[in-house]
Design goal:
Largest sheet: none
Distance between the termini: 27 Å
Number of domains: 2
Helix content: 55-70%
Number of helices: 5
Radius of gyration: 18 Å
């Protein structure tokens, strides 16, 4: 068990891993050690500034719930902001951010 294993379930870890993989594939960097160790090491230092990050699965679940509010579950427009805390269009913008980043 690696000391970095606790970071592996976070979306941050997965994004860092994807970035390092892309950099290697584009030959922009060369990782001479086990990539997971590099990703874990970076995650260790970045994680305190992004504490409480959700896993990719949790982010996808939130995106699905937001999608239901925006496009599925019917809430009258006159009640939407009162019940949800923002307009339908504002929530639609939040959903687009989720779908861009997951």
């Amino acid at each position: 068990m690696s000391k970095y294993d606790k970071y592996k379930k976070t979306a941050l870890y997965e994004k860092i891993q994807s970035a390092i993989t892309a950099l290697e594939e584009n030959q922009d960097i060369v990782v001479t050690t086990e990539p997971n160790i590099v990703v874990g090491y970076i995650s260790q230092y970045v994680s305190p500034t992004a504490s409480g990050l959700l896993s990719t699965q949790e982010l996808e679940s939130l995106a699905q719930a937001i999608n239901e509010l925006v496009n599925g579950v019917y809430i009258d427009d006159s009640e939407f902001q009162t019940r949800i805390g923002c307009s339908r269009e504002e929530l639609r913008n939040v959903l687009s951010k989720f779908t861009q980043n997951t």
